[in-house]
Amino acid sequence: MKVKAYGKINLLLDIIGRRDDGYHMLNTVMQTVSVYDTLELSIDKNAPEGTEIICDKEGFPLDSSNLIWKAADVFKEQTGITYGGKLIVKVEKNLPSQAGMGGGSADCAAMLKAMNTFFCTLKDEDELCEMGTKLGADVPFCIKGGTRLCQGIGEITNKLPSPDCAFVIIKPDVSISTPEAYKRYDLMKSPPRSHLDYFLKALASGNIFSTSIYLFNVFEAVMDMPEIEQAKQELKEAGALNTLMTGSGSAVFGVFEKECYAEEAAAKLAGKYSYCKSCVPVNGGYELMWVNR
């Protein structure tokens, strides 16, 4: 079977504290979008029990350090299943790395969902989210998908209405280390704060113009990268209502009133960036497709 693993963007991202264990406490509104990686699962019954990941993307880990592999191990441990051969996962990697789009978490979440169906284990979504929490704070959101307010370290999620709009996502040719972004934030004496209440009211109203006003990412205040500012400016010149960096970067997105406007803007900017995609909000974190049952 195959599964689409949808990427995400942060419409709002604020840090509101830090736990004793060092993890930062967040208020973030995440949105899954219609750009995705694809995982294809199959069993080689003639090979010994084990896991193999296949991907032609340069730099993509194919060993047990990969979150896909870790998801398989956690799922197998929690359910007691046996593969009956070698579990082979072919990955088509489309989501950029070090972009703030949750590619690793999305793949991990999609793997848990796919295995639950593939092996007929009938775990409910909350049980899968519990497994996902062991693998990464964003994984429960990527399992549920849609538009959600995520709090705690990201594991507490509440469903929100989805915006009626489209996006253009650009990944400048720079990368940002998430640990480095948090270190820079910790050095700030007076970080800016979001207007979460105003954002949530605007989102609930269904008015994308007012919602766009309250887009916020605290990490923009600690990043000094002209490439990011240039990408944001070009999105605005292409007609975006507003722009924002997603996650700890380095991808940025522009909000457009209609999908056709986003497609026109992406066509204009595609020649300048190796990753430039138009997309729309989606209501789930994954899509399962049987190939041969």
Automatic annotation (TrEMBL):
Protein residues bound to ATP: P96, S97, Q98, A99, G100, M101, G102, G103, G104, S105, A106
Give UniProt keywords alphabetically.
ATP-binding, Isoprene biosynthesis, Kinase, Nucleotide-binding, Transferase
Name of the protein in question: 4-diphosphocytidyl-2-C-methyl-D-erythritol kinase
Q: Which reaction does it catalyse?
A: 4-CDP-2-C-methyl-D-erythritol + ATP = 4-CDP-2-C-methyl-D-erythritol 2-phosphate + ADP + H(+)
GO terms (molecular function) for this protein are: 4-(cytidine 5'-diphospho)-2-C-methyl-D-erythritol kinase activity; ATP binding
**Location of the GHMP kinase N-terminal domain:** 66-146
EC category name: transferase
